[in-house]
């Protein structure tokens, strides 16, 4: 099934991917079906009327959690006035429900056999991604008088799909069927309820989703309305900004995920379809992007990551004391340790970023209680930076997986196999140290010094952290500067040799503050120069490098989230024009994706393409792409917490027009910010 006719609805980590008719016919390698907690609970869901498949007339995307399909019998080759029309309405909210409506437009009565084929392969999402077909447990089907039970068991790991319906269908091992008689102009309706169950030891049901019939479906709608109402309002003369902002808010609502241990509190899942779960790096960076708009996500994220912080040495999970997790999974392969994500700690940057988020959160909210609550975890994270992450003894953060079978090889955000290279295109040995992570470590120490001095009553620790940060900055600017290119190396190899390629990572260095001020202008020029900036955004790797590929995952594509932090870094160092240039390119690109920025898109020069070229397997929606427009708004308006107040210093792109952001929450209560872009004089002259 191609991307063009794929329909998606979701609520947290429960989602449905289907055809434009509403049907599901999954293959072992396609992420189609009903998924929840990393398991596919429906792999077949096919509706027929009198043995005939249905043809789609139209599809309504009602909300992120519900959709409606308008269908007629027969295929689309020759349209004949249909005597029947069929409407399928469905919603997800932890489980799945579908409402069938059939209308008889004929002048005479009709008798119909309405059948739904239903089955599940109970594939783990990792098995789908890796195209692993063989299941080690037993798939079973139980036909009962009032329901169909599909199940899978392997030891005490059990997953079940329980299907029931109004109108009393006949159930069999492959689905269920209704016998329907309709008089002229009469309509028939049936509701179908699909409950997903994750059964743990002792028969305990681990499901944490909602039922979506009746009041619960209205509750989802009310929750979305409340989510939007609580967020700041954005008005703009340029319609794309307000529309993109609203799309982002809705997608953030869709991606909210409540882990089993949180009792209803939510944090952002990383992205559909592969990453609908908790990620350390992704969740933290998304929270940093969205903090001025949805600060409640940050508090939840910090608490859950702190509760799951590494406490021991575990080579299988790449766990160390103090390390913040990379990824948490709930499926079969994690349960039986066929992969290490229960949780897995193979992220080199989540740990310093945890400290960065805690400080930034307090600056915005004034939530001193959380800073004090997480003091122990913050100190453990700082200890990890110094004691466990410096694998070479050079004072930098390095990574090398200890789980060589199923652990991640590249543990930075550019985690594809060939993302780190020398100028000649060859790949360095391990361990590796990437430049942006050193910036994060510097920033973490500077921020933690403030927390220690102001809230932890430990001025000596604050002084120590500031000395360490200053030494790191001096050392970094000596070892990482590529003199003949006037930029910072992407990485160092274990011998200290530079991976001397020009990459987008230098923008993260500006954001962290580790760059010496006299070098910032060179970086700004690179970031908006023709090798890195395509016109739509900053490429991950510069044109002309040996591994440059405009559709290479981390070697030339444009990642919206990456650009948002680059723009923030440019503002920090006093380059608002360059930041506005990047913001303008990304927001222009968003209009071609109906306001929903994908994970990545092609790095082709803008003059070659009338629209940004989509990366073929990009996640959408994806949390940190969804957060991108929010951080760009903050950057363009120059929103920064300052001494308990909100500072506003706008610099909009030329021709942007007026932007209003109303009711920005923070320790100051709620305030408004206004900005107007400069006129485009060239257009006025025309």
UniProtKB/TrEMBL annotation:
Annotated ranges, domain Mannosylglycerate hydrolase MGH1-like glycoside hydrolase: 336-591
UniProt-listed GO biological process terms = carbohydrate metabolic process
Give the InterPro entries listed for this entry. Answer: 6-hairpin_glycosidase_sf (IPR008928), 6hp_glycosidase-like_sf (IPR012341), GDE_N_bis (IPR032856), MGH1-like_GH (IPR054491)
Taken from the record, one Pfam family name reads: GDE_N_bis
Q: Where is the Putative glycogen debranching enzyme N-terminal domain?
A: 10-192
Domain of life of the organism in this record? Bacteria
Protein name (database record): Glycogen debranching enzyme
């Amino acid at each position: 099934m191609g991307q063009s006719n794929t329909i998606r609805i979701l609520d947290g980590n429960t989602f449905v991917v289907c055809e434009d008719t509403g049907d599901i016919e999954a293959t072992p390698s396609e992420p189609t079906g009903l998924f929840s907690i990393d398991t596919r609970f429906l792999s077949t869901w096919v509706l027929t009327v009198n043995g005939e498949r249905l043809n789609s007339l139209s599809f309504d995307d009602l909300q992120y959690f519900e959709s409606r399909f308008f269908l007629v019998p027969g295929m689309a080759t020759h349209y004949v006035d249909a005597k029947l029309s069929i409407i399928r309405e469905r919603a997800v909210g932890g489980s799945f429900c579908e409402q069938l409506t059939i209308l008889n437009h004929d002048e005479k009565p009709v008798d119909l056999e309405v059948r739904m084929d239903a089955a599940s392969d109970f594939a783990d999402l990792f098995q789908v991604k890796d195209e692993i077909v063989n299941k080690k447990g037993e798939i079973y089907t139980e036909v009962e008088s009032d329901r169909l039970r599909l199940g899978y068991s392997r030891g005490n790991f059990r997953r079940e799909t329980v299907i029931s319906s109004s109108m009393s269908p006949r159930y069999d091992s492959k689905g269920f069927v209704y016998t329907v008689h309709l008089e002229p102009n009469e309509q028939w309706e049936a509701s179908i309820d699909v409950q997903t169950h994750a059964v743990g030891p002792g028969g305990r049901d681990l499901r944490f989703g909602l039922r979506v019939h009746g009041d619960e479906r209205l509750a989802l709608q009310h929750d979305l309305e409340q989510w939007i109402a609580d967020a700041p309002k954005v008005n703009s003369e340029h319609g794309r900004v307000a529309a993109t902002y609203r799309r982002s808010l809705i997608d953030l609502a869709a991606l909210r995920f409540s882990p089993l241990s949180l009792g209803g509190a939510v944090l952002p899942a990383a992205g559909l379809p592969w990453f609908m779960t908790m990620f350390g790096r992704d969740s933290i960076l998304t929270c940093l992007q969205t903090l001025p708009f949805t600060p409640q996500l940050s508090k939840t994220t910090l608490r859950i990551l702190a509760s799951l912080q590494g406490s021991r040495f575990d080579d299988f999970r790449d766990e160390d004391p103090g390390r913040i997790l990379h990824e948490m999974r709930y499926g079969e392969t994690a349960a039986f340790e066929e992969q290490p994500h229960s949780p897995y700690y193979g992220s080199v940057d989540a740990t310093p970023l945890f400290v960065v988020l805690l400080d930034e959160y307090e600056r915005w909210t004034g939530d001193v209680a959380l800073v004090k609550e997480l003091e122990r975890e913050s100190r453990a994270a700082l200890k990890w930076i110094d004691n466990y992450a410096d694998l070479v003894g050079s004072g930098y953060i390095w990574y090398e997986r200890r789980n060589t079978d199923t652990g991640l090889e590249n543990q930075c955000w550019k985690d594809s196999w060939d993302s780190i290279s020398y100028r000649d295109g060859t790949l360095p040995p391990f361990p590796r140290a990437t430049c942006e992570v050193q910036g994060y470590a510097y920033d973490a120490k500077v921020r933690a010094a403030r927390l220690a001095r102001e809230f932890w009553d430990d001025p000596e620790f604050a002084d120590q952290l500031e000395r360490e940060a200053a030494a790191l900055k001096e050392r970094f600017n000596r070892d990482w500067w590529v003199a003949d290119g006037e930029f910072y190396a992407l990485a160092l190899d274990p011998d200290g040799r530079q991976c001397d390629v020009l990459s987008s990572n230098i923008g993260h260095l500006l954001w962290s503050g580790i760059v010496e001020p006299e070098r910032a202008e060179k970086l700004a020029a690179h970031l908006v120069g023709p090798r890195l900036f395509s016109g739509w955004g900053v490429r991950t790797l510069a044109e002309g490098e040996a591994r440059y590929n405009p559709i290479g995952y981390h070697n030339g594509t444009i990642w919206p989230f990456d650009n948002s932090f680059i723009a923030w870094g440019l503002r920090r160092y006093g380059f608002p024009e360059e930041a506005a240039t990047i913001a303008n390119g990304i927001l222009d690109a968003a209009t071609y994706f109906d306001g929903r920025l994908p994970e990545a898109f092609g790095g082709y020069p803008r003059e070659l393409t009338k629209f940004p070229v989509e990366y073929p397997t990009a996640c959408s929606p994806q949390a940190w792409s969804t957060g991108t427009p929010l951080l760009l708004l903050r950057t363009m308006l120059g929103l920064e917490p300052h001494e308990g107040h909100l500072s506003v210093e706008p610099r909009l792109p030329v021709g942007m027009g007026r932007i209003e952001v109303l009711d920005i929450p923070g320790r100051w209560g709620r305030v408004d910010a206004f900005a107007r872009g400069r006129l485009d004089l060239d257009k006025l002259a025309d």
